Q: What sequence folds into this?
């Protein structure tokens, strides 16, 4: 991905540096953690010795910004697909990721990441950046994530090795959950009203374990009676799970406060448990076709993994 439209443009735009480019070692100016619509600087050349910066664990991309163009051929391979040249990440990337307890704190399938090069000056004149993307969103919660940079692969067109640290670390925040109720309400009380068939989005701070894995930690009740529910993963956002009334209820019961709790211990995709419970309350706008009377049975088997 040596330019913004990397997979649509020929590799020559970023693969080979022009002989007119100046000699000199590329200087790492900064590193940025991107996730959940936010960008956090985790390292800067102006303050290189600060402690690791805290970030949300649901990272989607890490950008390493340099003061000049790099040799893209050391970062990506050029291949021919359907008669057209394009670039793909190297099997042995120039930036790798680790955390101290990776042997036991690991997702299924195991964590993987790809490293790309972008020669567009997105971060300022004459800059270029190398970006690391996890194959699935997120890093383990409540951990220290360290990126190791291979200086021999991060060079100018003439082989001048980068200037900057060989490792950069960031600390990920605790795993947590919140609720996305209509009109931006926090759902702090039962005044929030939803349709009887409302799918309640639970937004986690990181990629969450499968719905079947978190189902034991989801507690829903109305009027003191436990309600069976269905959990479904979001098709495009792995940090979101939807909670819906089981089909036997015919919808959320009306005229009752519906309490939803995501209990402490709920695991993220790496098995890291949520330390504190999350809770919300709402009411439904229309009566359900069936009321909770204990005859609904267990959680609907249609829950999506």
A:
């Amino acid at each position: 991905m040596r330019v913004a439209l990397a997979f649509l443009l020929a590799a020559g735009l970023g693969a080979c540096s022009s002989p007119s480019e100046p000699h000199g070692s590329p200087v790492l100016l900064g590193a940025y953690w991107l996730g959940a619509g936010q960008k956090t600087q985790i390292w800067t050349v102006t303050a290189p010795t600060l402690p690791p910066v805290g970030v949300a664990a649901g990272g989607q991309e890490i950008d390493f910004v340099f003061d000049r163009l790099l040799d893209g051929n050391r970062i990506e391979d050029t291949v021919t697909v359907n008669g057209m040249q394009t670039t793909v990440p190297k099997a042995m990337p120039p930036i790798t990721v680790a955390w101290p307890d990776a042997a036991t704190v690991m997702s299924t399938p195991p964590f993987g990441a790809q490293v790309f090069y972008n020669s567009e000056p997105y971060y300022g004149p004459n800059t270029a950046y190398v970006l690391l993307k996890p194959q699935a969103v997120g890093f383990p919660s409540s951990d220290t994530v360290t990126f190791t940079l291979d200086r021999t692969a991060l060079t100018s067109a003439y082989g001048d090795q980068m200037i900057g640290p060989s490792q950069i670390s960031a600390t990920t925040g605790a795993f947590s959950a919140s609720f996305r109720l209509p009109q931006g309400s926090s759902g702090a009380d039962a005044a929030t009203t939803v349709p009887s068939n409302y799918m309640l989005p639970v937004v986690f701070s990181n990629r969450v374990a499968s719905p079947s894995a978190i189902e034991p930690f989801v507690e829903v009740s109305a009027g003191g009676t436990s309600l069976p529910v269905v959990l479904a993963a979001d098709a495009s956002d792995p940090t979101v799970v939807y909670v819906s009334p089981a089909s036997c209820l015919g919808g959320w019961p009306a005229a009752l406060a519906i309490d939803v709790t995501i209990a402490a211990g709920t695991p993220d995709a790496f098995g890291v448990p949520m330390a504190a419970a999350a809770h919300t309350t709402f009411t439904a706008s229309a009566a359900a076709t069936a009321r909770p009377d204990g005859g609904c049975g267990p959680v609907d088997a249609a829950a999506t993994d």
Remarks:
- The chain has two helices and 20 strands.
- Confidence is low (pLDDT under 50) at residues 4-18, 288-294, 298-305.
- The first strand starts at residue 28 and ends at 35.
